[in-house]
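Read as chain and fold; for instance:
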Amino acid sequence: MKNLEPVSEVFLFLMEKSSRIGRTETYLNRVLSERGFLHFLLIDPEKTGDLSQTMPAAIEAGTSAFMVGGSTAVMTESYTEVISEIKRSSSLPVVIFPSGPYSIARGADALWFMSLLNSEDPYYIIGAQVLGSATIKRLNMEAIPMAYLIVGEGCAAGFVGRARPIPYEHPEIAAGFAMAAEYMGMRFIYLEAGSGAEHSIPTDFVSVVRKSVSIPIIVGGGIKSGTDAEQLVGAGADAIVTGNVFENMTNTRDKLCELIDGCKRGLSLRLRKTHITA
């Protein structure tokens, strides 16, 4: 057999560089490992409410990190202002949840470098990413690769992103997308029902995707109660995203505690299932 050529130092350097994980992603992975789940509070730049009260309530309740973004938010200045206000009140990471290149704003710790894989428009699969890459590079911003899948109702995110939402009765389609994303090197999967969705994603849908991939699964849209959070984490969600439920709400802290307590119960449920089947 012919001997293989020695691996060059340049090749090794490039491999190390390509697999390097940034500070924010390292933090998220550590919290997920220690706590068993993540909770993201999503702040829409167009619907911020009273952040001076929301931030302390979120920190006290145990939110893991903040996300800033919205399907119809189009002003970079709006992102910058909200990020700055969050940073004045909290040391938790702020991750931009972009709807386009205009979402890239100074001050954030990281950005979900996401591809809407089930869009019919190449712009949302790769075009917007190409346009935004130079800005991300110039700002030296941490980019976390994520596959974004719109399912069920889809709501504004599905409409704006020109997606073909994956029907709830066909979770195997989402599993196929998720497996392809993992093979392509994406490090998170986001299952999105859409902000303001009437119902959260069914647990059996999440379970099918969970059995298909090893990378973390984020679930958002329609999560309104601790029971919703419990069922989703119990089914295999590693992280939940909530935001719309807090609009025009005065008891933000109580609702956050309810949701995060639900995540804790869901984790216990999942661990019991794992123990039983082991």
The chain has ten helices and eight strands. The chain has one domain: 33-277.
